[in-house]
Each structure stands twice: as structure tokens, then as C-alpha cells.
Amino acid sequence: MNFANIFSNMMSSAETKDEQSNWIKCPKCLALMYYKEIDAKRSVCPKCDHHFRINAEKREE
């Protein structure tokens, strides 16, 4: 397994967001939530308190 495969596996195991329906699946509790629920709680799962990854731009908001 090379570095590119390891990196792509790490990225695919992160939280998944379906761009067409705007639903996010939590990687910890596997709950499916609307993205506005996550945004309202500042990128924290309302069901299990998992902290989603955010970029620096979103952190500054």
C-alpha cells in the first residue's frame, strides 16, 4: 500500500456529506443528519458529541 492509498483511505473514512441531498453521516454514531443541524451546533454531532473536522476558514466564522 503506498502513501496515496493511505491518504485516500483516511479522507474517505472522514464524515461523508451527500452533496445532492445535504445530509451528513456521523462516523462515530452513524446517525444521518441534515447539514443545518451540524452547523447550528458548530460542527458537533447533536447525538454523540463527535467533533467534525473543519477548515481554518470555517473556524474563523
TrEMBL record:
Q: Which keywords accompany this UniProt record?
A: Ligase, Metal-binding, Transferase, Zinc, Zinc-finger
Q: Which Pfam families match?
A: Zn_ribbon_ACC
Q: Where in the cell is it found?
A: Cytoplasm
Q: Could you say which EC number(s) this protein's record lists?
A: 6.4.1.2
Keyword Nucleus recorded: no
| Primary location group | cytoplasm
Q: Name one GO cellular component term.
A: cytoplasm
What InterPro entries does UniProt report for this protein, alphabetically?
Answer: COA_CT_N (IPR011762), Znf-ACC (IPR041010)
Q: What class of enzyme is it?
A: ligase
In terms of superkingdom, the source organism counts as: Bacteria
Q: Name one GO molecular function term.
A: transferase activity
Using the record's annotation, list all stretches that form the CoA carboxyltransferase N-terminal domain: 22-61
Q: Which PROSITE patterns match?
A: COA_CT_NTER
Specify the protein name: Acetyl-coenzyme A carboxyl transferase beta chain (EC)
The opening ranks of the lineage are:
Bacteria, Pseudomonadati, Campylobacterota, Epsilonproteobacteria, Campylobacterales
